[in-house]
């Protein structure tokens, strides 16, 4: 019984071993930080977003998710708007760099508690692929 199973499975295993694998899925996470109460990208942030744009251009089928966060101080409404403004500004830079807006999904997350230092909460995460 085992011999018949192995004899039937061997051709399938050999075929699978000969197939050329497709491109490896691209998955990366980049983090852009902001100053308090601001959605403006500084020089370092703009440079990082430009690098992400180049990776996204090299992988045109990879989706781009942009998650905006804020620090917990202030009203919930203000923080929700600020997290969305941060994410939209990053998306606008990607689009200006040639990334199709249809690939980009904006996910405002609003306020999050400090993890280690306050600036960690004032961020945008850019997820490419995955």
Automatic annotation (TrEMBL):
Supply the alphabetized keyword list.
Cell outer membrane, Membrane, Signal
State whether keyword Membrane applies. Answer: yes
InterPro entries linked to this entry: Bact_OuterMem_StrucFunc (IPR050330), OMP_bac (IPR006664), OmpA-like (IPR006665), OmpA-like_sf (IPR036737)
Where is it localised? Cell outer membrane
Task: Give the residue range of the signal peptide.
Answer: 1-16
Locate the OmpA-like domain: which residues?
A: 21-130
GO CC, alphabetical: cell outer membrane
User: Which domain of life, per UniProt?
Assistant: Bacteria
Give one Pfam family.
OmpA
Asked if the Swiss-Prot or TrEMBL record annotates the protein with the keyword GTP-binding, the reply is no
Q: What is this protein called?
A: OmpA family protein
């Amino acid at each position: 019984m085992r011999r018949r199973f192995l004899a039937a499975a061997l051709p399938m295993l050999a075929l699978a071993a000969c197939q050329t694998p497709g491109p490896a899925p691209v998955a990366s996470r980049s983090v852009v930080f902001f100053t308090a109460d601001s959605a403006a990208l500084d020089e370092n942030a703009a440079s990082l977003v430009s690098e992400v744009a180049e990776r996204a251009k090299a992988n045109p089928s990879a989706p781009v998710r942009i998650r905006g966060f804020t620090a917990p101080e202030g009203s919930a409404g203000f923080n929700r708007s600020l997290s969305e403004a941060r994410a939209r500004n990053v998306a606008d830079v990607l689009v200006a760099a040639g990334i199709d807006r249809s690939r980009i999904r904006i996910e405002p997350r609003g306020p999050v508690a400090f993890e280690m230092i306050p600036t960690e909460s004032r961020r945008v995460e850019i997820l490419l692929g995955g």
